[in-house]
Amino acid sequence: MLIKLLVSLLAGWTISAIINYLADTLPASASGCPACGSKRHFAKNLLFFQPCKSCGYISRRPLVVFAVTVLGLFTAYQYGFQGITVAVMDTVVIAVYLLVIVIDLEHHLILHRVTLVGGLGFLIIGYLAHRIIPTLMGLLAGAIFFFIIYIIGQAYSKFKAKKTGQPVEDAIGFGDVTLSAITGLLVGWPNILPVLFYGVALGGISSLIYLLIQKVFRNTNVSQSFIPYGPFISVSALIFWFFTR
To answer: How many domains does the chain have?
Structure first.
């Protein structure tokens, strides 16, 4: 247990720093330090959690990502350890989905660069886990499932914009389609169906609770509110990957 904990700490420390660095540099709208916008130093700010040199601000995100990464890796290594190959697969899965979650929460984006690289990794993992046919069928089913939701969301956004006379942020972006597709690669067919069903259900319930809180307790106009679905798909996929095998 001690060895697994030390490995989780070391791997989580390194991987979380990479996740934080990519979350700062990949999105076009990224601005570095949340307080002053200056570029964050990889080693000082993200690896050793030092305050911003320009303004002294200490971001909570690197610490949160570090804690979540270590917890996820330790759980996988301690309770789901099935050899080095599976441990490497678990590490890749955690890293990809955490990067998706961080970027989507902060920028409302699921970057195609992230899903493309993650998809290549998931293709290999999917093949090793359940062979090629279920893997490719999962890809197709995931893409079709969320593409239909994407089309419906686009139609709703256009209708809402026309009705209100104001631009409305898309409820579902095409990044959700690509994320759903690579999740199909990971979990395969027919497992992709419950993963997406529970991801959408989790997102809907969480969105409803959030909007009710904003409306009732903060008297906020929720008509323009945006709820990212990427984190919910990611959480659903992670739960399925680790707890149903």
So the answer is: 2
